[in-house]
Amino acid sequence: MQKRFTQKYLNNRGVANLCAFVFLCVAMMMGISIGTVSVLPLDIFNIIGAEILRLPISNDVNPMHSNIVMNIRLPRVVLAGFVGASLAIAGAAFQGLLRNPLADPYTLGVSSGASVGAVLTIFLGLSIPFVGTFTLPLFSITTAFLTIIVVLFFARQIDRGMRVETIILTGIIFSSFLGAFISLMIALTGDELRQIIGWLLGSVSMRGWDYVQIILPFFIIGSAMLIANSKELNAMSFGEERARHIGVNVQKRKMMVLIAGSILTGAAVAVSGTIGFVGLVIPHLTRLLWGPDHRHLLPLSMMTGAGFLILADLFARTVISPTELPIGVITALIGAPVFAIILIKRRAEGRG
Questions:
Q1: pLDDT at 2 exceeding the cut of 50
Q2: Whether this model's pTM surpasses 0.90
């Protein structure tokens, strides 16, 4: 009876969304409040409320705290949230599409492809007329999409059955190849070296509101496309043949999911660099807790991924303060063991 009650509780969509939302709100508050200079939650509400309503800040609030919140921590937390949400929902969609919990933008090589676009843009100083600051994410998105297309093409040449293990192995191979290409550009670069290295390690430090404005439209477009295809993802998670039998245009929907995942991954990499394993760990844990229905899994993964990356960034900037660790290092330290555990578990289930 206790088990039945627990399962019913976990399957309650309202409870799931409430838990994810509370987790995100707590993570945001911690990210804004904690640092070298601590800011009280009440002061944070006063500062943000005054900014939104265009009112003077209360005399009880330290003006320095207002500057820290509005110009340093809040944009950093919001950016980390958007990046985490983008990678998590893209990972959830890739896992549903390929029917494997090991699939994510990082293991499929999409993040590396997006990194090549970003680094190439920085290296060559590219700028598209009338696009300006959106040149970087556009190149990242394009190279991310081309990478996943090439990975799937080569995986099909190797294995006509397109087993997911083959796709992931192909993704890792291409990720290594693209990593070598990036290393070549680093070896040839001059003044841009520091910027490129910072991009590769992954960080949301000192980005500001401009970067939030860059990722926002791509996040809205990509996540809306995936959520609009959530029913089709449910159908395709049982196999493409079964999806066709119930009337799903598999090729069209698959392409839309791949494009949307590439948009989200490319934009995230463009503003924060390569941050691995968020798209692997968060959707997998969310699926274990709340079930595989993509109509709920996608928004839950978004909120949980956003909160997770905000906390990871908080840990990265405070654990050895005043020195900051790259956020990609933190997510890799958490994600790599989880990846290994999932892989071992799948191997054991396969033998069983």
A1: no
A2: no
